[in-house]
Each structure stands twice: as structure tokens, then as C-alpha cells.
Amino acid sequence: HKRQDLLNKRILITAAGTREPIDPVRYVGNRSSGKMGYALAETAAKRGAEVILVSGPSNLPIPQGVTIKKVETAAQMHAAVLSEFDTVDVVIKAAAVADYRPELIAEQKIKKTGDTLTINLVKNPDILRELGQQKKRQLLVGFAAETEDLITHAREKLTRKNLDMIVANDVTLPGAGFNIDTNIVKIIHKNGTIEELPQLRKQQIAEIILDKICIMLTKSI
Ligand code: PMT
């Protein structure tokens, strides 16, 4: 890569969806493939950063030069992210973390008995919100996957989670969101400015996000 503008920076990136077990063979999950997060990890490493990729289950190859920590549940992602937080300069949270998990995990495969089955869900920790409360010098970049009122919801997450920047994607648009090679995003900064990007490959979006991060890192020195 021509630019080594992230040399000596430690960047933690989360990718893919979490899986919340119901019983030994079933889970609650989502459609995240890891493509967005892995593109960020690969690009950041090429630009010289030391990258820690905390990933939920994904079939993608591990990008070269990246330290991988594989997790399954939101609780495991929470532990992995918190254990690295003090050592990093930047966190980018592209993972789709389950907001809720089954309250009880059945020890044996649940049998097909009744006509309906109720699974009680309890709230997971909001990893990014906790980072926002703890952050000292770190830059925090979140993603917002929305199906309506994109800007309003993304802005609300930026504020509530104390982020420096949020990348908002309307996951209902063809060419955007889960499990495809392109995305359509709006980048919202802490100061309120919004940049709208056209449909681009996730690698190109990763480059642009990292350009913004470089500028913020230079300003905060
Ligand atoms: O993996 P792909 O198939 O390429 O798809 C990419 C993507 C659509 C998953 C990605 O672009 C994206 O939008 N990721 C964030 C999805 C999401 O969970 O958004 P959210 O609006 O629910 O969460 C907002 C932010 O808080 C996210 O940065 C999320 O990582 C974080 N979060 C959410 C819940 C929670 N319990 N802990 C968190 O840290």
C-alpha cells in the first residue's frame, strides 16, 4: 500500500454478527457476514496499523498481518474488546452485536412438543456504550444499521455512545448493508457534519473511513 499513514497506531476492529445460543444446536443470530469489518481490518493493516480483529463467526479469510480473536456471543465480544481497550488508539465497531440473548440456554436440544415455543430474551451489554463511558484518548467509531429514519437514529447513537464518528447504513437499500460487497453509507461526525457517499465497494468505504480517522488522529496529537 502506498500510504503508511497508520504506522504505530493500534486499531481494534469488530466484525460479523454474534450468535446467542438457545440450546446446543441453535442460536439467535443476524445476517452480518463480516465483509465490512474485514475490509476495514485488511485496509488498516495495509496502511501500517497494528490491527486486532475481534470477529464473530465468519467464513472470510483472515486478512494478512491482522491479529484475530474469534468470538461467538456478545458476552465474549464484550470481554475481548474490553481486555484490549486500554492498549488501542482507535476502535471501529462494524460488528452486528445481538441486543438480546436467550435468558436460559437449554442443556439438551429442545424437543418439538408444543404448538408454540416461547424463548425469553434478556438484554446484552452495549459494548460501544461502555467504551464511550470509559474512553480517554481513544477514537471511537460506530456503525448504525437502520431500516428507517437513518440520520435521526444514527445521530442518537453517536451522542448516547459518546462516539467521534458514526457510519450509518440504510440496510434496506439494494447495494447496501449485510452480506454483499458494496455499501451505501453516510458518515456523521461529532460536530454534526454529514458526508453522503455513493454506492462503493466495502474496501473503498474502508479507505475513506480510515482517511477520516487519520485526520482525527493528527488533530488530537
Ligand atoms: O458484515 P457485513 O455483511 O459486511 O454487513 C455490514 C454491517 C451491515 C453489519 C455493518 O455495516 C454495520 O452496520 N454494522 C453495525 C450493525 C449494528 O449492529 O448496528 P446497531 O445500530 O445495532 O449498533 C450500533 C453500534 O453499537 C454498532 O457499532 C455496534 O457494533 C455497537 N453495539 C451494538 C449493540 C451492542 N450490544 N453492543 C455494541 O457495541
Which labels suit this protein?
eight-stranded mixed sheet; 221 residues; binds ligand PMT; EC 4.1.1.36; 5 helices; two-stranded antiparallel ribbon; metal-binding; ligase; magnesium; Rossmann fold
Report on this model:
- The protein is of the alpha/beta class and 221 residues long.
- The chain is 28% helix and 27% strand.
- The protein has five helices and 14 strands.
- It has helices at 35-46, 74-85, 127-134, 150-160, 202-219; strands at residues 10-15, 20-23, 26-28, 50-55, 66-70, 90-93, 100-102, 121-123, 139-146, 165-170, 182-183, 185-189, 194-196, 200-201.
- The strands form four sheets. An eight-stranded mixed sheet has the order 5-4-1-6-9-10-12-13, with helices on both faces.
- The longest helix is centred in the last third of the chain and has 18 residues, at 202-219.
- It is globular.
- The protein starts with 9 loop residues before the first strand and ends with a helix.
- The structure holds ligand PMT.
- Its EC number is 4.1.1.36, 6.3.2.5.
What's the gist of this structure?
The protein has 221 residues and is α/β, with parallel strands linked by helices. It has five helices and 14 strands.
